[in-house]
Amino acid sequence: MPTAVRPTRIVVAKVGLDGHDRGVKVVARALRDAGYEVIYTGLRQTPEMVVDAALQEDAQVIGLSIHSGAHMTLFPAVVEELKRRHATDIVVFGGGIIPEDDIAALKKRGVAEIFTPGTPLQDIVDWLRNRFPEGKSL
Amino acid sequence: MKVRAHDPKQVWREEFESGQQRDDGIETSTISGIPLQPLYTSDDLPQRAEEYPGQFPYTRGIHPSGYRGRLWTMRQFSGFATAEETNRRYKYLLANGQTGLSVAFDMPTLMGQDSDAPTSRGEVGHCGVAIDSLADMETLFEGIPLGEITTSMTINSPAAILLCMYIAVAEEQGVPASKLGGTLQNDILKEFIAQKEFIFPPAPSMRLVVDSIEYCAKEVPKWNTISISGYHIREAGSTAVQELAFTLADGMAYVDACLERGMHIDDFASRLSFFFDAHIDFFEEIAKFRAARRIWARWMRERYGAQQERSWKLRFHTQTAGVSLTAQQPELNIARTAIEALAAVLGGTQSLHTNAMDEVLALPTDRAARIALRTQQLLAYETGAANTIDPLGGSYFIESLTDEMERQAEAYFKRIDEFGGVIPAIEAGFFQKEIADAAFRYQQELEQRRRIMVGVNEFTVDDEPPIDILRIDPRLESEQAARVEDVRRKRDQAKCTSALNLLRKAAAGTDNLMPYILDAVRAYATEGEIMRAMIDVFGTYTETAVV
Amino acid sequence: MRAEDAAPGVAGFTGAPGTGKSTLVDAVVALLRSKEQSVAVLATDPNSPFTGGAILGDRIRMQRHALDSKVFIRSMGARGHLGGLSLASREAIRLLGAFGFDQVILETVGVGQSELEVAAVADTTVVVLTPNLGDSVQMIKAGILEIADVFAVNKADLDGHARVIAELRGMLNLSPKKDWRQPIIPTVAIRQEGIEQLWSAVLAHRKHLETSGRLMELAATRLRDETAEVAAELARRRAWQALEEDPALAERLMKDGTPYRTAEEILQRNPNR
Fold first, then answer.
1. Do residues B59 and B389 make contact, with C-beta atoms less than 8 angstroms apart?
2. Both C52 and C154 in a single domain?
3. Fewer CB in a 10 Å sphere around the end CB: N or C, chain B?
4. Of the candidate ranges B60-69, C30-39, C142-151, C187-196, the one whose mean pLDDT is the lowest
């Protein structure tokens, strides 16, 4: 049955210098299997590049992955850039090597959710489904 | 019960099949998907002449005396933020019995960027030490006699630069390059395949690797010029067989490149070293290490015609699998690491790094780092694992599994050949797709509880007390930025600029670049400036991502 | 927006997976930027027919144009539209024209009937082939020869490219288009080779359309086509909705109805009931 409802569109990116893309690729596939349209923008994305892509792609969500410890600088930078581009309706979530204490701090700074290593993919999908109940294809 | 009087194996099989079987749905294949029999017997033992350690093809080890002759090197990888702090940690570890140094660099350094570059923002000092110039290297090794220890440096695209810095520091200590021992990771092919820390495109990247191998063959003969790595390939999600095959294929690609340069195989082959993962599926790892030695020896002698024994012997460093560690109930990681380390020892590794329990979350604390080191000492001195050479040799299971992995690796070599070699296969996305598929498959197995990660999808705990983790002081970034600015201010700018110009010219030609890089290093050109000079000529590489 | 507003040129690129289409489009974008032209790229990937999801992977092949404000890239899922281009694409093209982009490039994977789709929407259709397609050009689907306005033989540095070009030329000679002789351009997209010639061929075709009056014809046909497509899509949605919401209807269909009769019944119903 052809899709009558627009699938939620998610831009998924690795910000910063590290190249560990195993997790982000696995998540991209899982999101596709759950019915989302996923735009993977690749490695070494700056906050500006990620937001620009999200705007061009009319994405509702941005997923960020980072393993180098620079999340406290780069994730809020993405949130700030969304503010600057008047796109604060875009939801930001993240994953990677992020200690528990930092999660609270990141949420205060506008990151909607952080998924740490070991999170079942289904948890991420469930969270998205809760957030965007209408935007789901068949 | 009906008893067939004559065949005990048949009896066993009947009893096994009619007996209780676990029905928990857990996979009984290896973590890589190799199906395992419930029992191996002499029927499964491959038919071959008896093998001995120190004898071709070295399945049982490259030294006749194994660990009775010399224990493996306990080489804990570490690096923190500043050269000063790292220097302190090195002295701590050396005092506590570590027998070789291993340097972890931060992301900007790994990516050839200075600490004050805009893209280094937020990244300085987080996963290793920031080295911007010779000045930082001098601080890093202050008070450490480079003529008496060996050092492993984990860096790839800018590897030649860091090696030159090491040589320059040794010079200042009065130690000639010919006395220096250590290892440079310098394995750019696996960057394109797995770790993605590439900068230049494949061809100039290979040229730099060959330059460093050629230079060291003459000037730094005790140095292991390259650590051909499977670790990162495995951590990116590959199976054990893929790790084995892709790593050895990379090795052959480097050999081909050096031969093309006109080097003679026996001049450089003995200085090629390897670096493998020690993952949690215990027996598969042991078989993998044994198969690696056998395959490499055969190829070196039979395909490449190497004449000298030392060219046939595969030497490797192992690190326990970072990807097997959990953030949940992290104390369990101590047990995981111990088991993985044991696999490496039973597989005959030459040197070993054991992960600290908190490494899923951050750089290790002193305490966690010490436990990791003590784990190796425990293995070496308490368990008896070092008392017999290749203790699992002759095991029906291990020998059968070793052969199976060798067979599957050879099948991969054929497929890579069909692409025309490693680099065309990289450009076609072959390795990346295999790895991404294997990673996704494993994740699905976890989600379906066909494989278990204790503490993660089974045996979980609801409320976990937070454990102490190491935090990098955010001020470090601005302090390091100030330091590199200081170096730029104080150096002889004319000398520096001239050296960089000469390097740029040489890069556009065919000279070996090592002497030019060494001159730039001595002139206190920063790492970023040296990289920039080469990027001006080589350009940069953007990968075509395969999801 | 009227049919005559064919302001941005629309070039469609289609071809089998593995032909390096995205890389080729990336190279064309680079060329256009060097000529100071603004470009919008609509890249379509198929959605999974089962989950509806998709990994839209074309953008990542055009990294060098990230943050260039004169390059706009939109990845689209085909969304079950068999032709490979979603309905939204045509609307999107019109909008992009309104926003003042000099050139619009469509990119779609050549599966199913997507080549036909692209040809119906683009002024100039470029079909991308490569030497290592495994089999010879004979295996290429019927219809491609008719819809292609320009052929790009990418990865022309590989063995066999001369043969592909020769075979293609042979086939074209046997069934020539009357008024336009389809150029065959060898390219090596990763090295930015042959791109200038490729684009010249596209422009030459566009010129041909203008001078022969075909451009206006095409625009009119397109508008009518699209209307029919939209009508078909609306009808499809109504049919599904009716079948889902009216159990009696579905039951009748299963018991003794035929799809044809049931469909006519649905279409005759007042949708605003």
1. no
2. yes
3. N
4. C142-151
Number of structural domains (chain A) is 1
What is the least distance, in Å, from the CA of C67 to any CA of chain A?
6
CATH (domain of A107): 3.40.50.280
- The whole-number average pLDDT for the span A66-75 is 90
The reply to whether C202 and C240 lie within a common domain is: no
Are C167 and C262 in a shared domain? Answer: no
Count of domains forming chain B: 1
Distance from CA of A40 to the nearest CA of C (A): 7
Tell me what the pLDDT averaged over chain C comes to.
82
CB-nearest to B542 from C55, C57, C63 is C63
Interface contact A37-C54, CB threshold 8 A: yes
Which range marks the domain in which residue B133 is found? 60-447
C224 touches chain A (CB under 8 A): no
Q: What is the pLDDT of residues C192-247, one digit of tens each?
A: 999 999 999 999 999 998 888 887 887 788 778 778 878 888 888 888 888 888 88
**Cross-chain CB nearest to C56 (options A33, A38, A52):** A38
Mutation target for B interface from A11, A21, A73: give the one with most B CBs within 10 A: A21
* Count of C-beta atoms within a 10 Å radius of residue B503: 25
Give the tens place of pLDDT for each residue, B468-522: 677 778 888 999 999 999 999 999 999 999 999 999 999 999 999 999 999 999 9
The phi, psi pair for B349, rounded to 5°, reads -65, 150
Q: Are A118 and B456 a contacting pair at CB < 8 A?
A: yes
Chain C, window 33-62: residues with a beta carbon less than 8 angstroms from a chain B beta carbon: 55, 57, 60-61
Chain A CB within 8 Å of residue B107 CB: yes
- Tell me how far apart the alpha carbons of residues B17 and B21 are, in angstroms, rounded to a whole number: 8
Query: CA nearest B12: which of B47, B43, B46?
Result: B43
Q: Is residue B20, in this structure, part of any structural domain at all?
A: no
pLDDT (average), residues C96-123: 76
User: Residue A19 and residue B361: Cβ atoms within 8 Å?
Assistant: no
Q: Are residues C151 and C257 in the same domain?
A: no
Q: What is the pLDDT of residue B313?
A: 98
Range of the domain at C249: 223-268
CB-CB under 8 Å, B545 with C23: no
Q: Does a structural domain hold residue A2?
A: no
C64 contacts in chain B (CB < 8 Å): 542
Percentage of chain C lying above the pLDDT 70 cut: 84
Residue from the list B119, B126, B237 with its beta carbon closest to the beta carbon of A69: B126
Residue B44 belongs to some domain of the structure? no
Contact C180, C151 (CB under 8 A): no
Q: How near does any CA of chain A get to the CA of B503, in Å?
A: 26
For chain C, how many structural domains are there in total? 2
CA–CA distance from B336 to each of B326, B375, B391, B453 (Å)? Answer: 10, 11, 21, 11
User: Per residue in B222-260, pLDDT tens?
Assistant: 999 999 999 999 999 999 999 999 999 999 999 999 999
Which residue positions in chain B have pLDDT lower than 50? none
The answer on C78 and C132 residing in a single domain is: yes
Taking Cα atoms as reference points, which of C204, C201, C192 lies closest to residue C28? C192
Residue B121 DSSP symbol:
T
Neighbouring C-beta atoms of residue C146, cutoff 10 Å: 13
- Residue B273 lies inside a defined structural domain of this protein: yes
Q: Residue B380: which CATH number?
A: 3.20.20.240
Closest-CA residue in chain A for C88? Answer: A6
Most B CBs within 10 A among A10, A14, A24, A25, hence the mutation to make, goes to A25
**Residue A136: pLDDT above 60?**
no
Task: State the average pLDDT over residues A103-129.
Answer: 93
Residue C252 has pLDDT above 90, yes or no: no
Q: Decide: residue B466, CB within 10 A, 0-12 exposed, 13-18 middle, 19+ buried.
A: exposed
Same domain, C120 and C240: no
**By CA distance, what is A28's nearest residue in C?**
C55
C231 and C207 assigned to the same domain? no
Q: Domain limits at A69?
A: 9-129
Q: Which residues are within 8 A (CB) of C255 and not within 5 positions of it... i.e. 6 or more apart?
A: none
Q: In this complex, is the C-beta atom of A47 within 8 Å of any C-beta atom belonging to chain C?
A: no
pLDDT in tens, A35-48: 999 999 999 999 99
Residues C46 and C180 both lie in one domain: yes
Polymer length in residues for chain B: 547
